[in-house]
Amino acid sequence: MKKFDTRDMDLIQSAVIFAADKHAGQLRKYNNTPYFLHPARVAARVGQHQLGTADAVAAAYLHDVVEDTDTSLQTVEALFGLEVASLVEMLTNASKAEEHRKKNRAARKRIDREHIAAASKEAKLIKLIDRIDNLTEIDEGDYFTKIYAAESRLMAEALAGVDDVLLAELLQLADKLEAYWEDKHK
Length: 186
Fold this sequence. Notes:
Layout: H1 6-22, H2 37-48, H3 54-62, H4 65-68, H5 73-80, H6 82-91, H7 105-117, H8 121-137, H9 143-159, H10 164-184
Helix pairs in contact: 1-3, 2-3, 2-8, 3-6, 3-8, 5-6, 6-8, 7-9, 8-9, 8-10, 9-10
């Protein structure tokens, strides 16, 4: 079991409180559970991984606050430091920038894959676990499932080299969802 010192625990605890506050009232799309449970699950898995530093765990809790709340990267840096903010920036979809918003979905997702492909191993680990968690909650009967599974397969290419076991889990989930979709819509 990984040991974190007091400073590490203070950082993680602060990230938990901040993320819980920022995601308060938000619900997951497919199951209407509190949104905060998603970053909490991602952070828990990151904390168990050999690459799971305190900064990575904090960033896992905060990985969606810039995209999904009114939080800026500058705020993340001021509250949690440059390393955490850097990880959150690597995890924030580059396609959310104003200059990319009018591009089609395929172009935006390519931009996001290129962005994460250039990220650190720690950021890729968080993204890999994030994607796995998303795939476990998606509605198998929704048409978006087919799209998201195919995008996940492409995302896996950008995340290769971090953890082969997690990468295999991601691909297995994508395969399962694609097979379910194809079987259901024959």
